[in-house]
Amino acid sequence: MNAAVKIEIDKAVCAIKNSIQTQKIYLFGSHAAESATQDSDIDLCVIASLQGMRKIEALRKMRRAMMNEVNSPIDLLVYDNADFAARSALPTTLEYKIVSSGRVLYG
């Protein structure tokens, strides 16, 4: 991973942590697998304590926080801790793949 992408990821993680009650952040996809190209987006999975907040609201808060900080395209997934734990236990799910081959950036 090149230095510019690493800086963008660090800025995104910081913005996310400051916008919602974050428990864990995973990097997954091509950047986690070290197979990213110039056109690759940054895939982040955020595990948060949503406390009744709808996922769409959490996504809006995170995107707003990143808006002036991050210039790279970012694909965000957000889960409540209990939902993610249940889904990541099933080997046929994306969540399982995120846990097994993604990289923990926070938490």
Task: Explain how this protein is built.
This protein is α+β, with helices and mostly antiparallel strands and 107 residues long. It has one domain (3-106): Beta Polymerase, domain 2 (2-Layer Sandwich), CATH 3.30.460.10. Helix content is 42%, strand content 23%. The protein contains four helices and four strands. It has helices spanning 3-19, 55-66, 81-88, 94-101, and strands at 22-28, 42-48, 74-80, 103-106. A four-stranded mixed β-sheet has the order 3-2-1-4, sandwiched between helices. The mean pLDDT is 95.
Describe the structure in brief.
It is built from four helices and four strands; from the N terminus they run αββαβααβ.
Number of strands: 4
Radius of gyration: 13 Å
Strand order of the largest sheet: 3-2-1-4
What structural category do the secondary elements indicate? alpha+beta
User: Order of SSEs, N→C?
Assistant: HEEHEHHE
Can you identify the CATH class? Alpha Beta
Low-confidence blocks of residues? none
Overall spatial form = globular
Name of the CATH homologous superfamily:
Beta Polymerase, domain 2
- Individual helix count: 4
Distance between the terminal alpha carbons, to the nearest Å? 21 Å
How much strand? 15-25%
Mean pLDDT: 95
CATH architecture: 2-Layer Sandwich
CATH-assigned fold name: Beta Polymerase, domain 2
Main pleated sheet: 4 strands, mixed
